Amino acid sequence: MVVDIGWTEPDLVDFDRRGPDLVGVRRDATLDLVTEALVPLVEHRLTVDPAHRMVLGQSFGGAFALEARMRQAGGVSRGGGQRVDLERF
């Protein structure tokens, strides 16, 4: 199963919003939203094996995914980022 989260803006490049949400000052709040609200909601509605919980992302989302994996937030057992410029963070 894949659960996708994103923004409603038509422009895919919105650094002013996505940057702070994923790698900036609101990163912890976004991680809390995913681990404390989204994961429990999905697991309440669907049969999910927590041992296979994974977080993935690209660019800012990839940096966010790597951070979530390093913290093992929400029981994340696997994670990865694609096209992440770690030198920027």
Description:
This protein is of the alpha+beta class. It has one domain. It has three helices and two strands; from the N terminus they run ααβαβ. The protein has helices at 15-22, 27-45, 60-71; strands spanning 54-58, 78-82. Strands 1-2 form a two-stranded parallel ribbon. The mean pLDDT is 78.
Key features of this structure:
89 residues, 11% strand, alpha+beta, 3 helices
> Kindly state the mean pLDDT as a whole number?
78
User: What's the total helix number?
Assistant: 3
Number of domains: 1
> How are the strands of the largest sheet arranged?
1-2
Helix and strand composition category: alpha+beta
- Say how many strands there are: 2
What is the H-and-E element order?
HHEHE
Specify the overall morphology: globular
Helix content: 40-55%
Rounded to an integer in angstroms, the radius of gyration calculated over CA atoms is 13 Å
Beta content comes to 5-15%
Set down the secondary structure blueprint.
Layout: H1 15-22, H2 27-45, E1 54-58, H3 60-71, E2 78-82
Parallel strand pairs: 1-2
